C-alpha cells in the first residue's frame, strides 16, 4: 500500500518547511525542545522528549483520526516503542512520496516513518526498514452491480488506486491505466461516487471499510491478490539503535500476545498469516 493524508481535526501544533501537520497520538510533551534528545538505549531523537513519527493520513485501520486523535494499528505498535524509550509519540502528517525518498528522515523532521508501507528493494536504497510487522494482500473492490468478477475483468475498465503505492504499481503491471487518488479514503470515495468502476487497494483497508453496513450492501471484493507484500517501519539509513528498538517491540509483541490483541482491536479476527515473520 501504503499511505496517509488528510486525517486531521486540526490539532495544529507546528508547521515545517514541508507544511507538515503535527498530530497528537498520545499526550504531548511541552518541554520537548529543552529535554534531552537521547532516549533510553542511547537512541538519538530529532526532538527531545518525543518520538516524532511521519505518516500519511488517512490510512485506516493503520492510522486515522478518531475522536480528535490519530489512532490505529501502526500507532499502537509505535506507542509500545515510545514507551520503551521513555518518551511520547508525536505524529506528523506528510505527503506519501516522502516515504519513498526518505526526505523527511534525512531532513530530521521525523525519527521514523509509519504508514502501512510495503518493504521493497527500491525503497531500501533510501531508508532502512524494520523487521516486517504485517503481511498484506491487494484487494479488487467493485460495485456489486458492475458485473466484474475478478482482476481479469478489469481491462478497459476505469480502475482506481492510491498514488505512489504498490496497488498502483500492480495495476500498471497488468497494463491497466489506473486513476490515481491522493489517499485511501479518496480511492474508496471514487468508487462510491462512480468515478471508477473498481479499485485495487490493500485488503486491510477494505476490511475496515466494509464493516459499514451501507458499504457492505453495495460493494464487494472479487479478488484477493497475494503480492507477497510486507509492511515495515522506516528510519534514516544507519540509525541502528532506533531500528533495534523497533525490532524488539515487534518481536516481543508477537511473542507475548500484544500483537494479536492489537490486531483484533484494529483489524478484525486474528489471521496468523498476516503476522509477517520477523527477519532473523
TrEMBL record:
Signal peptide residue numbers: 1-19
Protein name: Transporter substrate-binding domain-containing protein
Segments forming domain Solute-binding protein family 3/N-terminal: 50-270
Domain of life: Bacteria
InterPro entries noted in UniProt: Iontro_rcpt_C, Solute-binding_3/MltF_N
Pfam families listed in its UniProt record: SBP_bac_3
Gene Ontology molecular function, alphabetical: ligand-gated monoatomic ion channel activity
Organism for this UniProt entry: Streptomyces sp. SID12501
A GO CC term assigned to this protein in UniProt: membrane
Cross-referenced Gene3D superfamilies: Periplasmic binding protein-like II (3.40.190.10)
Annotated keywords: Signal
